[in-house]
Input
Amino acid sequence: MSLRRFGPLMAASLIALLLLVVRLFQVQVVEHEVWAREAANLSRESEVLPYLRGEIRDRNGVVLAQDESVYRLEFAYRSFRREHALGQVAHALSDLHGHAVTLRDAAEALENEAQRLVQLSPRDIDVFARGGALPTFGVPAVSSAGDARRRSRAASLRFYVGRLLALDRLEWNAVKRAVRKGDDKRSYFELAQAHRSTERETLLAFRDRMSHARADLQGLAGSLDLAEFARQLHVDDPVDGDFTGLGGLLELLQQRRESIEDDVASDLFRAASGFSVGVLPPEVLREWFDLDWIAEMLGWEPGRLDEWLEGPHRRWLSNQRSFHAPAALIQSNLESGGLSAGDALGRFLDEAARRYEPADLLRAERLRRLRDGSPPWWQLERCAVLDELPEILDAPWPEETTTPGMPFQDPEWRAARARGDVDSLKAFAAFGFTPEAPTSDWMPPGSNLEWTAPSSPEEWRDHITAAFGEADGPLAEAAARRAREDRVLLPLAFQEGWLETFQWIALKRLEEAGANAAVQGTTWPFEFELEAQERAADRRNYAVRDRGSRVVVVDGAPHISVVQKISRFPERFAGFYVRDVPRRKSLIMWEDDIPLAEFQVGGVRHSTLTESVGQAELLRELRELQRTTGRDEILREAIAGLAREIYRADEQRGRSGAELLYDEALRGRNGYREREGLKERRSDPKKVFTKEPEHGRDLELTLDVALQRAAQDVILHPKLPPDIGVDRDDAWFASPVGAIVMITPDGEVLAAASAPREPQPVLPGRSGQREIVIDRTMRIPTGQAPGSIFKPLIAAHAIETHGLSPAQALPCVDEDGTGAAYGSVHCHSTYGHGSVALHDALQDSCNSYFAQVGELYQDRQEYLELVHFYGLDEPTGINVDGRHGYYEDYSIAGLHGKELSRRQRLLGGNGLAPIEATPLQMARAFAGLATGELPQLRMVRKVGGELVPKVSRRLALSGNTRRLIRDAMIDVCEHGSAKKAALKRSDLGFAMAAKTGSADFLPMSSDVLGSLRLVHPDRPPSMRKHTWVAGWFPADDPQAIVVVYLHDTGVTSSKNAVFVAEQFMHRPEVAEYLAGGSR
Amino acid sequence: MKHLPANSAPREEAPSRLPIRIRGIRWSKVPWHVLLLGVALLMVGLSFQRAMSEAEGGVGISFRGHMEKLLVSLPVLLCAFLARPRWLRRRWWWVYGASLTLLVLVPIIGVAHNQAKRWIETPVFDLQPSEFMKVALIIGLAGALYRNRLTRFKDWLLPLGLALVPMGLVALQPDLGTALTIVPVTLGMLYLAGASGRVLTAAIVCVTLVAFATVRFEFGVREYQLERIDTWTQSYWPEDLIEGRRGPAFHAYHARVAIGNGGMTGRGLGQGIANQAGILPERESDSIVAVIAEEGGWWGATGMLVLYTLFVLGMMQTAVGLRDRHARLVLGGVALYFGAHVFIHSAVNLGLLPLTGLTLPLLSTGGSSLLASFAALGLALGCAANHEAALDRDAFRSY
Output
C-alpha cells in the first residue's frame, strides 16, 4: 500500500472538491440573483403606512368628517379549531369517526366529549392508528386496506387531545417523552397532571373549563350582529328565521368550516388537474370525473361532494362576467382615441384568451414569456383543460379528436386576424363559431346537458345582457348596460361565445373518450392519474393551513363590549380578532344615521376597478423593485415613491361634495416602511427604512353647522302655516320637497338644505320628485323657473341697460274681460293694478308690468346677456377651477336654439320659462343685487389653513338703482306679497328686503286640487307652482342672502313659501349669526 | 564459546493488556498539520455555531450545549489517540461488536424523532449508535483487512459482512445518509487493502444499478424516501425548486436560498437569512454548509472545502508514510470517513444528491457526531504516532 493506492483516492478527493466548488459557483454566482431575490423576500418585510385623510370642519371649527380607527371583528377558522375547546373537540371527534362532526353537535355534549377524549391513552390512539377499534367512542376496527388515513387521523387526534389539556410546549414535550419511555397506558389526562408544572387541574376543573368555553361563545353570540356575519359569509338566512344566539353563531362557524373545505377541495382539484374546477359545469364533473379521492382526502361523507360541486362553476362564471370581462374591456381601452377598433378588439381577445391558458406552463415557455411578454390571442396554441384532459385523466383518449379547437386555435380565425378583418370577426361572433347543439348519443345515462347558443346578433345582445345582469356587482350592471352599445357588445359576445364553445368542446372530447372507453370495455367516470392525485396530496396540508388562516369579517362595527372582551381575553375567544381599520366618520349627524350637510361634505368610496386596473403597471413596477437585491437610497426612494402613488386596498377617495372636490388635498401620501430581518426582532435603525406618511390637509367649509341644522330642520319638518284665512297646501307640508340656502354677501355658503332626505311616497297627482333624493340647492331636475323673484333682477338690469324709468307707470288693466293682463300674460290681480310704477309693481308683484319690462328685451341674445349679467347661465363657482365635486346645473336650455317668441319675452320678464335657475344661483344673483358685486360662491373657505381666494365681478348697477329695488323689496315684506308672514321690521327687529315668487309648473290635477284647503273653492287655482322667497337682511347692511324654494305646490308663494321663510328667519341660529356668533 | 550473560539476553517487553498507553507515543510522528487543520475546522465550526445561537433566528440553538458536547468529546479524542494499535489490531471485534450491539438495541430501546428511530436516550444526550458504528467499522475493517489481501473470493466475505450488516441495520432505522457514508468508506478501505480496482468499479456499477432499480420499482424503500428522491430530481433548476418550495422541497429550497444568497463574498457572520429568519431546518447540523456558504460567500465556502480537503489529504499523505499496514488502513479509513461526510453533506445541500440528514464532522453540532468525529480523529493521530513493533512480513513489504 503506497502512493499507488492512495493516489487515486487523493485524486478522487480533488475531483470531488472541484465538483463541489463548481456547483457552489453555479449556485452562488451564476444563480445569485435568483436566490438573493428569494432571500430578500423571506427576510425583508415592507408595509405601507397609511395616511390620515384630512378633516373637514365648518367655519367655526366644528369637525364634520374625519378619519378614525375603528375596530373590526375578524375570524380565522384555523385558529379557532386549533385553540378553542369547541374547535378542538369537534375536529378530534371528526378524526375519530372519519366524518365531519358539526360544531353544534360537539357543543351539545362539549364537557362529556372533551372528558372522554382526554381520557384516551397513548396506547388507545396507537391502536386506533393501526386500525383497531375504540369501543368507548363506538369506532370499529378496520382492515389496513380499509382506511389508509387512520395514521394521519391518529396524529391529528393526538394534536387536539394535547391542545385540550392546555399544556405548554415544555409540558407537552415531557408527556411525549414519558410516552416514548413506555408510559402509554395512562390516559393523557393523567399524564398531563403528572407533568404539569403548574397546579394540577382536576377533572371537575377541566369540565368547568369546557363549560366556560361554551358560555363564552354564548355571550359573544349575544353581542354580535350575526346577520352581518351571515352577509359577510354570503350565507342566506336559515329557513326558520335569522341566525340568533349560540345556535346561530355555531351555524355560521360551521358554514365557514364547510366553505374552507370547499376551497380546499377546489385547491386539490386544481393541483391535480392544473385548472380551476369552476371552468366545467357540475353536471359534467359529476358524470365524467371520478372525484371520490377528494372526498376521501377530506373525510367527506357521500353527498358532500355534490354540495361542493354546485358552487365553483357559478362563482367562476360570475367572476368572468363581473371582473375579468370588465377588466379586459378597460384594458383594451375601447373608448380611447388613437386605437383602431381592430386593435382594441385584439387587446380584449388577448385578455379573454388568457383565461383559457394552462396555469402551469413548461419551464421553457415561462422563461420565454418573461423575456418576450405574453403572446397575442391568435398565437396561443394550447387551451387548458381541453388539451390537457388526456394527461390528467386515466382514460382511453382517442388518437385524434374530431371536435374543433377553441376559436383561437381555429385556422380561419387566425387568417382573419392576419387580414385585420374586423367584419369577419363580427360575423364569427354572431354566427361563425357558434357550434351546434350537442348530440346525446354518448351521453352517460341520466345526463341532461343542453346548450342552445344564440343564433342572431339580437339574441346575443339579450343573452349578454341577461348574463351580465346576473353577475355580481355594479361592474356587471354597468357592463350589462353598456352591452346595449355595439362597441362593447362585440367583445362581450366573444367572451360569452368562447365560454359556450369551451363548455361544448369539453363535453364533446369527454364523449369521444367515453366512446373509446365503451369500446375498450372500461367505464367512466374517469379517474385522475395517480401522479395527479399525489400532487394534490402534497398540496393538501398547505391548502388546509392557507385557507383556514384567511380571515373573514364578522362585524365591521362591533360593540365596544365585544372589543374589550376579545382584547382582554384572547385565549378565551380563540379565532376571533379585533383589528384597527381606518374609516371615514361623519361626526355631526342629522336624525340618527344621516350625516348633517351630507351633500356639501360629500362621501368617500374605495377605488374602482378602472382605477385599480390603471395602477396595474405601477404595482408591477413596485413589486419588481421590491424584489431587487441590495438597497441604496435611490432605490428606496423610488420604492417609497411608488408606494405613495399606489392606492391601498382600503384607501378611501372622495366620491362627492367637498370630499371629491378637494380629494387631492385631503388624500395625503402613504408612507412606507421596510425592515430587514424578522419583524419585532430587528430593531437596528440602520435596517429600517421609513418614509413617514404625509397626512391630508384639512378643509374648512363655509358652512355654519348651526345654520345648516336650522335650514335642514325647517325644510324637512316645516310647520303648517297659521290658519289665517289663506289657501293652504297641507299635503306639501306633510311631505316637503324644496330647498333653503343662505350665503354671505361675498359668496360663502352658510347653509344649503334640501328635502326630501329620504325617498317619500309620491303624493297623488304630484310630481315624482318626492322619491328622488338629490341636492336641490344646485340641481334643476325638472322645469324650475324662478318666477317673480326674478323681477327685481330684471328691473335693476332694465333700468341700467334698457332705459326703464322707475317712475314711469305702466298699465295693468283688464282690457277684454278676461282679467288684467298684458298680452298673453295675466296678472294675479283679477281686476288689475291700474297704472303702476316700478316700486308698486315690485311690492305687489304685478305680472303685467313686468311683462312689459320683459318686452323691452328684443331677442334671445338680450335675454342671454341679462341672465349672464347675474351669472344664471354659468357655474356658481362652488366647483373650484373647473374641478368636479358638486353636481351643479347651470345651463338654461330654453335660451339656446330658436328665437324667443313674444310670449316668451313677456313670460321671461316675470321669471317664467324660458328662465330657469337653482336656489344657489338665485342667492348669488341677489348677493350681486344687494352689494353691486357678483361673487363666485364658495363651499370651502380654507384648504390646509390657506384661504381660498374670493372672486367677484362688479355689476354695472348704480347705487340709486339698487336702493330703489331694495326699498321696494322692503315693502314686499312690510306691505306686499309677503305681508302675511312675520318678516316685517317689527317682527325681525330689522328690515328684510325680499321678493316672493310663484312660477307656474304644471296644470292643476284633480288630486292636488282635492288636497288643498281653499278659501274660495269657486276660484280654484289652475296651475301647480314652484314657490320662492329670496332676499337679504338686514336690508340696509346685508349680512346674508336667503333663498327658500318649494317644489310643486298648489298655492302661491304668499301662502306657503313666505311662512317657511318666516320659520327660518325666526330661528335662534339666525339671530345668533347676526349677532356675530359665527366667524 | 563465549556465552552472553544470563541477564543480557534480549528481553521482550511484556505485552500490555490495556487498550491505551502513553509511553510509546512518537511525538515527532504526530501529524501535527492534520491536527492543526482539524482544530482550524473546529474553530470554524465554533464561530458559526456561536453566531447561530446569537442570531435572532437562533431559537433552540445553544452554543453552550455545543461546548458541553465538545468538552465531553475531548476525552474520547484523547483515548482514541492513546489507543494501542496492537490492542486495536487484536481486539477490533470488541469495538465492532459493542457498536453493533448498540445498533441492534436501537429498535428495541431506542427513541424515534421525525419518523426515524435512531437514538438511545442517556442523561446527557441522545446517543446515535450509527455514528459510532462508522468508526467501529473502520476499526473492524482495518482489523479484518490487516492480513487480508483480498486475493480470493472468500477473502471478501468477512470485510463485506462487516460492512453490510451495520449498513442494513442503519438503513432499517431508517438512516439512508449514514448508510450512504458506509459505502465509500468500505469501498475505499477495500481498495487500500489491495482489492482490484476493476472489481471495485464493477461493484460500484452494480450497486448503482441496484439502487436505481430499488428506487424505480420501489422495493424496500419507504414512502418518504421515495418522495425525497422525487423531490431531488425535480429540484435541480431554480424555477422548479422555487415552485415546489411549499411542499416536500421545503428544506432543499431554503438551503439553496441560503447558499445562493451568499454570492461571492457572503453576508457576514451571523447575518445570513438562514440565521435571521430561522427558517432553514437543521442549520446547525445537517445544513451547516448552507450557513457557511451564505455568510462566507463563495470564497468562504470554497475555503472551508479546501481546508477540509487538505485535512483529508493530510491524513492520506500521513498514511502513505506509515509502515504499519493496520495503521495505514485506519488512517485511510478515517480520511475516507471525513471525506465522505463532507462530500455527501455538501452535495445534499447543493442539490447534487437527494436530501438526507448528515452532519459535517467537526463543524456541525450533535453529541454523537462530535464523539464519533473526535474518536476518528484521535484514532488517526494515534495510529500515526503510536508505535508498536510488529515483525510480520508487512513491516518489510513494500507496495
